[in-house]
Design goal:
The chain is mostly helical. The chain contains 3 helices and no strands. Helix 1 packs antiparallel against helix 2. 8% of the residues are buried.
C-alpha cells in the first residue's frame, strides 16, 4: 500500500469517527422510521472505516530519507 502522510490519516480517522457517531445518534434518536435506521447502519460503517484507517496509521512504517540519499540524488 502507498505511504500516506500521518496528518492526513489522523484527519480522515477523526472525520469518520465524528460522522459515524453523529449517524448513530441521529439514527437511534428518531423512533419508528426505517430510513433513519439505515442512517445508523451507515454510522456503524463509518466507525469501522475509521478503525481501519487508524490501524493503517498505527502500523505504517515511516518514510525514510535514506533511500533518497542512497541513490545520490
Amino acid at each position: 500500500m502507498k505511504y500516506v502522510k500521518p496528518n492526513r490519516l489522523k484527519i480522515i480517522t477523526l472525520v469518520l469517527f465524528a460522522s459515524g457517531g453523529f449517524g448513530i445518534i441521529v439514527g437511534l434518536g428518531v423512533p419508528g422510521n426505517q430510513p433513519i435506521l439505515m442512517m445508523s447502519f451507515m454510522g456503524v460503517i463509518n466507525i469501522c472505516l475509521a478503525g481501519f484507517f487508524g490501524f493503517i496509521f498505527l502500523t505504517q512504517e515511516s518514510k525514510s530519507e535514506q533511500r533518497r540519499k542512497k541513490y545520490g540524488k
